[in-house]
Design goal:
- With 288 residues, the chain is mainly α.
- The protein has one domain.
- It is built from ten helices and two strands, in the order ααααααββαααα.
- A two-stranded antiparallel sheet has the order 1-2.
- Helix 2 runs antiparallel to helix 5, helix 3 runs antiparallel to helix 4 and helix 6 packs across helix 10.
- It starts with a helix and ends in a 6-residue tail after the last helix.
Length: 288
Amino acid sequence: MRERIISGVVIAAMIVGFGLAGGYPLWVLIMVCSMIGYQELLRAAGVLAKEEKYNAVSAVGLVMSAVLYAGFMFLQARSGSDPGRLAMTSDFWAITVVVLAFLLMMTVYVLTFPKFRSEQVMAGFFSFVYAPLLMSYIARARALPYGIFMYALIFICSSVCDTCALAAGMMFGKHKMAPVLSPKKTIEGAVGGVAGSALCSFILGIAAQYADPGADFRIRFLIIGICGALVSMIGDLAASAIKRNHEIKDYGKLIPGHGGIMDRFDSIIFTAPLIYILGVLLLGTVTL
C-alpha cells in the first residue's frame, strides 16, 4: 500500500507538471509511455515472448510510434497559434502513419513467413492503435484551444470518475454492472462516477470562464464530463477483459503498486480521444 501511495503521488505530480508545461515535454513523455504500453500489450497477446526485448513486429510499431509523435511535434510547431490547422493536419498525419504501420507489419508477415502467425500481426497492429495512437490524444487535446482545461477533463473523466464510482459502490452498490468481468463494479457505483465527473467538469467550466469571460463553457464541459466518464468505464473494463483473456494479473511491473503503463492508463486511453473529438466539435476548433 505504501508503494502504491508513493507511486500515485509521483504520477499525480507528473501529470500536473507536464500538463502545465505542455509542448515538447508532454509529447515526449506520452511517446515514451505509449511505447512501453505497446510492448506490454504485445507481451500480453503473445507477440513478444517474455525473454524477448523486441522482434520484427514490435520494431515496426516502435519505429512508427516515434515517427507518429515526431510528426505531431513538427505539425504543432508549424501550426503556431492556429489550432484548427493543427487539428486537421494532425488527423491526416495520424491516418497516414496508421496505414503505413499496417502495410509495414504485413510486409514483415510476408517476408518472414512462417515466423509470425496472422493473429500475432493483427495483435501487433491492434496494439499500435490501442497504445501509441490513442495515447497521443492526451497531448493533442492539450494543444486545443483552452487546452489546459481539455487536458484536465481527461483526468477528471477517468480518475475522478473512478474514485467517485468506488465510493458510491461501497456505500450504495447492490446491482452488478459486469458480474463476470468485474464482480466488484456496480451500477450504483457507475452512476456515482458519472455524477462526480459531471459535477467536477461543470465546476471546471465555471473556472474556465475566467480565461474567456465572453464564453460559457459550463454546459459544454458538462456534456464532455458525462460522455468522458461513460467511456472511461468501458476503457477500464476493456483492459481487464484483455487481461482475463490472456490470464495475466498486470500488464507490467513498471509502476510499484499499480502494475504497468496499461494498468494505469486503461481508462485514460479511451477518455482522451473522446474528449479531443468533443473539444474540436464543441469549441469550434474546426469549421465543418
